[in-house]
């Protein structure tokens, strides 16, 4: 039976009263005493800066590109009202708003899991109250570049699983394709519904000290993080309602409806109301909160593999009323675990026979199986060439310059400059399998040199970029912290880009690693509207 997607994954507020009703008076007194003591310690910890007046008078942009301020200390146009508001707040007010946001996020149960963490699996995703602000002209450039990129990537995936013309033309080396662990031979000849392979994409962008926006990597398998975007916006609107209204910030709240439209577009045309499900690996997955949240927001069922069955050539969902046919699956399970008959035979998370039903066009999936070939970090280096080959256009958004260790000259350079470069494994994520040269030890560099020599196909290297920064609260003052940006692209009837996206911030001073699993947090991302008309939906919601 499908998991009730409308049930909160962390129903703490309902559980606590029932537990307290079962304990005696003395036990309850102990509980309250412990809580009071913990609160007192927390109060004492914060008392030194709770009355501080946060303002930007002493804030230093240093030698980095700052997203909120010009080098001369003046706020950029889209951030002037915010800066004025923060500077005008009474002592302690900004801390109170930050803490109110943290309490709200805790009540919402906005968590992620860190695999292998000994202190516990669930963590609250840290949030900072100072947003990243993107000017309208800049967003237009980013949006156009993302649309161009997803069109080329979709054409590449289709080509790779059919005629492989780009390989025959020697634009993408055959050896790189044959050694790619994310390439799925079983997907050769697949024809996804409406010809679309990548329906939901998260593209990571960074800004260097030269002010230019670069694509850092593409995430085309099961990109996560959009739930944080929506919840961050909700709590920020409550914290700065008047600034929102006056600044004309573009809305993000229509993402669930846009996602639903994208998924519904994949269903056969004769089906008026398709049955759509979100397929999750289960509660122990790091992004389970997001799976549950999106299912709830779209009004569809959240299911696990055991809730689905292939029967008479179709996919059905087990319900209390019997079997219900499924038309579209938004899968948040990697290819390896999707179907034990087609991929990993030991998978207990997928649906046996699912790929065969998909191949026959009797169920749609987003994203299509096999899309992981396009977010291989080695294949990433060739995306600009894909854009030129398939679209006959120059890339709007450039790649970060990349050394492919499979190439002898590139490998030689990388091995000689490990202390200056960022080295990444082809299919790792979350900040794992990575060497940040300037912050590494000689022992770590030797270890990566050996890995590169043993398996050069698995590694790329890039120069260490001076990532842009955004002011971030640190006790009683602001400090610059490095950020990246993950916009979300939906490809259905047309291509739509969520205005803004997830701004991830490296909370550790000097760190360039923004991943939540490595101590990163998030910020709200404000895209300033081109006109009052473009922002009117947001103003209505406040």
Q: What is the gist of this entry?
A:
Pfam families: CP_ATPgrasp_2. InterPro entries: ATP-dep_Glu-Cys_Ligase-2, CP_ATPgrasp_2, UCP005522. With 542 residues, the protein is an alpha+beta fold.
List keywords for this structure.
UCP005522; Dna Ligase, domain 1; 542 residues; 5-stranded mixed β-sheet; alpha+beta; disordered N terminus; ATP-dep_Glu-Cys_Ligase-2; CP_ATPgrasp_2
Structure commentary:
Residues 131-506 form the Circularly permuted ATP-grasp type domain. This protein has helices at residues 12-21, 25-46, 80-88, 93-108, 136-160, 165-168, 174-178, 226-239, 241-247, 255-264, 288-298, 354-359, 383-391, 408-416, 442-454, 532-541, and strands at 111-113, 122-124, 127-134, 200-207, 213-219, 276-279, 301-303, 308-311, 314-319, 322-325, 328-331, 364-366, 403-404, 421-425, 434-436, 459-463, 469-474, 477-486, 488-491, 495-497, 502-506, 520-527. Among the domains are: 12-128, no CATH class; 403-463, Dna Ligase, domain 1. The protein is built from 16 helices and 22 strands. Mean pLDDT is 88; it is low at 1-50. The strands form six sheets. A five-stranded mixed β-sheet has the order 3-22-21-18-17. The chain has a four-stranded antiparallel β-sheet with strand order 5-4-19-20. The chain is of the alpha+beta class and 542 residues long.
Structural class: alpha+beta
Instruction: Give the mean pLDDT.
Output: 88
Strand arrangement within the widest β-sheet reads 3-22-21-18-17
Largest sheet: 5 strands, mixed
Spans of at least 5 consecutive residues whose pLDDT stays below 50 are 1-50
State Rg.
24 Å
Helical content stands at 25-40%
Query: Helix tally?
Result: 16
| Share of β-strand residues | 15-25%
End-to-end Cα distance, whole Å, is: 38 Å
Number of strands: 22
Judging from the principal axes of the Cα atoms, what is the shape?
Answer: globular
Pfam families: CP_ATPgrasp_2 (PF14403)
InterPro entries: ATP-dep_Glu-Cys_Ligase-2, CP_ATPgrasp_2, UCP005522
Domain Circularly permuted ATP-grasp type: 131-506
């Amino acid at each position: 039976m499908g998991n009730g997607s409308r049930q909160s994954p962390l129903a703490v507020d309902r559980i606590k009263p029932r537990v307290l009703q079962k304990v005696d008076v003395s036990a309850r007194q102990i509980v309250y005493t412990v809580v009071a003591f913990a609160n007192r310690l927390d109060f004492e910890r914060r008392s030194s800066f709770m009355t501080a007046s946060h303002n930007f008078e002493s804030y230093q942009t240093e030698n980095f590109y700052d997203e909120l301020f010009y080098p001369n200390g003046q706020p950029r146009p889209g951030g002037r009202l915010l800066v004025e508001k923060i500077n005008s707040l009474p002592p302690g007010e900004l801390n109170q708003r930050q803490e109110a946001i943290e309490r709200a996020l805790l009540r919402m149960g906005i968590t992620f899991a860190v695999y292998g963490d000994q202190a516990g699996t669930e963590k609250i995703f840290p949030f900072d109250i100072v947003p990243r602000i993107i000017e309208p002209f800049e967003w237009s450039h980013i949006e156009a570049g993302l649309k161009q990129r997803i069109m080329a990537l979709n054409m590449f995936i289709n080509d790779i699983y059919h005629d492989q013309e780009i390989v025959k033309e020697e634009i993408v080396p055959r050896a790189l394709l044959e050694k790619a662990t994310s390439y799925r031979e079983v997907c050769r000849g697949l024809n996804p519904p409406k010809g679309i392979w990548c329906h939901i994409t998260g593209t990571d962008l960074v800004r260097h000290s030269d002010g230019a926006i670069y694509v850092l990597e593409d995430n085309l398998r099961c990109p996560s993080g959009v739930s944080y975007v929506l919840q961050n916006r909700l709590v920020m609107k409550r914290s700065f309602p008047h600034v929102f209204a006056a600044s004309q910030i573009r809305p993000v709240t229509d993402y669930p409806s846009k996602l639903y439209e994208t998924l519904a577009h994949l269903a056969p045309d004769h089906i008026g109301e398709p049955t759509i499900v979100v397929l999750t690996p289960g509660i122990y997955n790091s992004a389970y909160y997001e799976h549950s949240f999106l299912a709830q927001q779209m009004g569809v069922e959240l299911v696990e593999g055991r809730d689905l069955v292939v029967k008479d050539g179709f996919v059905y969902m087990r319900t209390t009323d019997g079997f219900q046919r499924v038309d579209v699956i938004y899968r948040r399970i990697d290819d390896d675990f999707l179907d034990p008959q087609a991929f990993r035979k030991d998978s207990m998370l997928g649906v046996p026979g699912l790929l065969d039903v998909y191949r026959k066009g009797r169920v749609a999936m987003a994203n299509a199986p096999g899309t992981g070939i396009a977010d291989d970090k080695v294949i990433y280096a060739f995306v600009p060439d894909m854009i030129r080959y398939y679209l006959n256009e120059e890339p709007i958004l450039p790649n970060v310059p990349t050394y492919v260790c499979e190439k002898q000259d590139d490998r030689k350079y990388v091995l000689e400059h490990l202390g200056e470069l960022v080295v990444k494994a082809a299919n790792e994520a979350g900040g794992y399998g990575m060497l940040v040269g300037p912050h590494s030890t000689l022992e770590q560099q030797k270890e990566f040199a050996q890995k590169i020599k043993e398996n050069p196909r698995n590694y790329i290297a890039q120069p260490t970029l001076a990532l842009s920064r955004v002011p971030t609260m640190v006790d009683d003052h602001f400090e610059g912290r490095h950020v990246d940006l993950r916009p979300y692209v939906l490809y259905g009837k047309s291509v739509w880009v969520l205005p803004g996206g997830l701004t991830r911030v490296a909370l550790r001073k000097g760190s360039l690693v923004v991943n939540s699993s490595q101590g990163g947090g998030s910020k709200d991302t404000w895209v300033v509207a081109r006109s009052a008309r473009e922002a009117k939906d947001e103003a209505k919601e406040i």
